[in-house]
TrEMBL record, chains A, B:
Signal peptide: none annotated. Keywords: DNA-binding, Transcription, Transcription regulation. It comes from Carnobacterium maltaromaticum. This is LacI family DNA-binding transcriptional regulator. InterPro entries: HTH_LacI, LacI/GalR-like_sensor, Lambda_DNA-bd_dom_sf, Peripla_BP_I. GO terms for molecular function: DNA-binding transcription factor activity; transcription cis-regulatory region binding. CDD domains: HTH_LacI (cd01392), PBP1_CcpB-like (cd06286).
Length: 322, 322
DNA sequence: TTGTATGCGTTATCAG
DNA sequence: CTGATAACGCATACAA
């Protein structure tokens, strides 16, 4: 279509001047600036990004590698993309569908100069395979990893879950049942371990048969309220995998006349905005800051800067449901 | 890093020859081919895609524009990406989060030569705004649209839903309750209209209060089984928004000793693979073919070809649940 | 304040 | 079968 040459010719200036106008860089007399701008507007000209990428040797784009559309991804992405944009970067989603080859393809984009860095939610290939790509650009992951080449923004959910359990114990509860999200995820494993250790430490019985996995929606939370009501030996406190599930429970409980926390105490997880609306005691999980840190780590490597990172820790937010 | 020049120097040949080896194009003596290949392997060389894109004037990439991660998107994407790959195209996901400006940014990529064409699930901007971008590359959409510039693979769900309702009527059912997916979606509106028209045509009562919206998961299907069981005036037939929801109903029904289709007839929607496993009567919704058509339409415009399109129509698949 | 010249890394045409 | 050379569209150092 139209290129910088054409604009230059029509405006009666050199390509360099057109470039200066487009990028508002360097000195341009206001008069010529307007002249050039008019031609740009008239021809509806937009620079060819591939030429710019090639010239600059960077794409100002970060690849976000994930095996699928998860709930985490969607939250993470929005925080990550926002902070990235603030620093002039775009984010492109690279879905692998749990295929190792697709993941390799994503990393190849780093090598092929299509993206400047990668943030990886969950890996499919071995770390040794992934590590090799770090020489083509920075790689940061959400998972726990001990590699000098790959940085991480991992948070140990063991700590967070423990916070909730201890809080309920202090409130006098001895019949605590926790629920979990994705069964095989490392975070669920860590949370489960916290439960195990808690039971052993406090000498209370771990009633595994009452717990459940793969809970995500508020609809499922509602269902749990019906389950609790029907249960003969009712637990006195429940610890939910997300605020979302917890508020489903609260909504159904309210409709059924179950009194929280009198009949049963409820603790959520995430401290999402809905938690406050339901006056829900929850564990603050600073995913937003985690996403910012992830970007900062990439940016620091890319631009040899030293932007400070947010300190990350789980926090108990005590509200009215305990 | 290493570029084609370096390879050429080390292999003692010209850039042109290296290019021929890399792309297996043109004549190269086997001996020199091997010599070059060795250097390529040794240096772990990969061509810079931006240079290739610039040179070729195309990226062999289609942008898939969607406002969010929907269930539809995930299914559509996998079919679409598969057929695209077969023709040498990649697919990149462009999420707009329902923001008009984000959608514009996605279309800008067409203008900036970052993608060759666009498939759009659901628009946020007016068609007049979107149309303007069609001069930079082909645009195909999943929605209904009458524009000479934008092609569509729209299917009217009215037809499909009608098929299910008529089938149940023929089987003698007069107490039919349909359920729906996303409340405001155009497809839901079309399905609802089919229900209205059906009731009027057959002279049966439309019991809107028994129906429900926003049903997606099999867990929600299970819940509907419990609802049905508790209901005093039980409908004799149910029409579900997706097979997924329907099989949840079937699973729960089985556990509760509800007999299908004796106690209640069940019809799904989509004819997904799970439908066959549950011997579920359903409406075949050829999304896979729709995705292929979407790509073919883009490809035909891009390459001035004339690949034939699949004929698209809803089909009733009668199985054991009616 | 503006223009000239050069290079980013690749492919394709044309000669040899 | 191979190499020199000219694009692709842009940004920038340097000169003017």
């Amino acid at each position: 279509m139209s290129n910088i040459n054409e604009i230059a010719k029509l405006a009666g200036v050199s390509r360099a001047t057109v470039s200066r106008v487009i990028n508002s860089k360097g000195y341009v007399k206001e008069e010529t600036r307007q002249k050039v701008q008019k031609v740009v507007d008239d021809l509806d000209y937009t620079p060819n990004q591939n030429a710019i990428y090639l010239k600059n040797g960077e794409t100002k784009t970060i690849g976000l590698v994930s095996p699928d559309f998860s709930d985490i991804l969607s939250h993470f992405l929005s925080s990550f993309a926002t902070i990235a944009k603030k620093y002039g970067y775009q984010v492109t989603l690279l879905l692998t569908d749990y295929h190792q080859e697709s993941e390799i393809e994503a990393f190849q984009k780093l090598k092929q100069k299509q993206i400047d860095g990668i943030f990886q939610i969950v890996r499919s290939n071995e770390w040794e395979v992934i590590e090799k790509y770090s020489k083509y650009g920075p790689i940061v992951t959400w998972q726990r990893v001990t590699s000098p080449k790959i940085e991480s923004v991992f948070m140990d959910h063991y700590e967070g879950f423990k916070l909730g359990l201890d809080h309920l114990y202090e409130k006098g509860h001895r019949e605590i049942v926790p629920f979990f999200g994705i069964e095989k995820s490392l975070n669920t494993v860590a949370r489960y371990k916290a439960w195990q250790d808690f039971c052993q430490e406090k000498g209370v019985a771990l009633q595994a048969e009452k717990s459940r996995y793969n809970l995500h929606t508020s609809t499922e939370g509602r269902e749990l309220a019906r389950w609790w009501e029907a249960e003969k030996e009712k637990p006195t406190a429940l610890l939910f995998p997300t605020d979302n599930v917890a508020v489903g429970f609260l909504a159904e409980a309210r409709e059924r006349g179950i009194s929280v926390p009198k009949d049963v105490a409820v603790v959520g997880f995430d401290n999402s905005s809905i938690a406050e609306l339901f006056n829900l005691t929850t564990i603050d999980y600073p995913m937003h800051l985690q996403a910012e840190n992830a970007f900062f780590k990439l940016y620091n490597q890319l631009k040899h800067k030293n932007l400070p990172l947010h300190p990350l820790s789980f926090k108990l937010i005590t509200r009215g449901t305990t």
